[in-house]
Amino acid sequence: MPAGLASAAEGQLVSAQDLLPASPTAATVAAVVLGAVLLAVAVVLRSRKRRVIATPTQRATYQVLHVASLAAPPLRSGLTETTAAKAIRPLHQLLGGPALGLVAPDRVLAWEGPGEHHAPAVLAALADSRPEGLHEGTGRVIALRADDLPCDLLECPVRGAVVVPLSTGEEMVGALVAIVDTDPVPGLVRAAVETAEWVSAQLAFAELDVSRERLAEAQLRALRAQISPHFIYNALSAISALVRTDPERARELIEEFAEFVRYSVRAHGEYTTLAEELRSIDRYLLIERARFGDRLQVRLQVAPEVLPVVVPYLCLQPLVENAVRHGLAGKAGTGTVSIIASDAGSECLISVEDDGVGMDPDQLRRPAGGGRGETRSAHVGLTNVDDRLRSVFGPGCGLVVETAPGAGTKVSMRVPKFQPGVRVVSGWAS
């Protein structure tokens, strides 16, 4: 090829290569990757931002509810120095202001912030606001100004106070004292009143819990009174008949009787384990078999898994006693009492059944005071146990009674294996 043509071709070739796209460099690749990462981070942050509390109103609502939840648990135990000391700080955060106090009618329970030296003046004003008589009412809201709170301390920031009575219903149990550094204004008074009403509601719940415990204790006393007159007489009669004919058997029954009475009249705990309840029932049936002889047959079927389940104290004893006294005592020939406790996942299923004379279902629908003698006693025992089960475990865990004249009686219950607030402590249930 002539030299001129070669030079021209080479020139054209170089020009064509210049027109081709250049290969990507490391800097270009890094820039692309960095951009993708930043985009992904932006997407993640945006999605998270959507899930957080976005508006000031939502944030304020959350803060108020959170602070209130900190004060509620101690107040649900009543108004004492201990519970007031635990609740005073979240209540102060909830209401704001220089200081906050919780007082009883005659003393300071807890105080946070300055101004506690004004407590005597606050208590005097609270006493003046109460109606005559201890149970006449809950008093009225008091707004105190600087003239009502004289002070010789130059650095004292207290310029007023709002005193709102606290009550559990009809009786005043104390007051909430909101200390302010200005004259009390209507907005502050309203906030203090609303806070005090919320505190009073928690104290009312505490009073309700106490009333429930008192009712449970009364029900236990009624059960013990129901057991004692009938069973003790029959047990002692059966033992006395064996003293001469079988002294060893009589001694054994006396020991079992003593253990049964000890368990029945114990003063520890509202609850017990199923194992303890069945052990007491075994002693009861041992003594009853000494009285009825071969006429009384017992069938016991208990799953080992349910023995530690916590049940209300004396929840089975009345059912077994009813099966013996009201089901088999009036039946000719042999009678059988069946006690079955089975595992049903999160629950324990318990039933007490007899093949005795049964009863009219309409009798169970009548008030517990209706009927006479044995029928009324059986009804009271079933109603008592049913009320206690529903109170502890909820309305769905009451007794289910299946009966008819001449067809025997079966009483069933469902007991949760785990229930908040129901547990065994140091060998006793609480």
From TrEMBL:
One of its GO terms (molecular function) is kinase activity. The chain crosses the membrane at residues 26-45. InterPro entries: Bact_2-comp_sensor_kinase (IPR050640), HATPase_C_sf (IPR036890), HATPase_dom (IPR003594), Sig_transdc_His_kin_internal (IPR010559). It comes from the Bacteria. The keyword Cytoplasm does not apply. Residues 307-419 form the Histidine kinase/HSP90-like ATPase domain. SMART domains: HATPase_c (SM00387). It holds the Pfam family HATPase_c. The keyword Transferase applies. SUPFAM superfamilies: ATPase domain of HSP90 chaperone/DNA topoisomerase II/histidine kinase (SSF55874). Keywords: Kinase, Membrane, Transferase, Transmembrane, Transmembrane helix. PANTHER family: SENSOR HISTIDINE KINASE YPDA. This is Histidine kinase. It comes from Cryptosporangium minutisporangium.
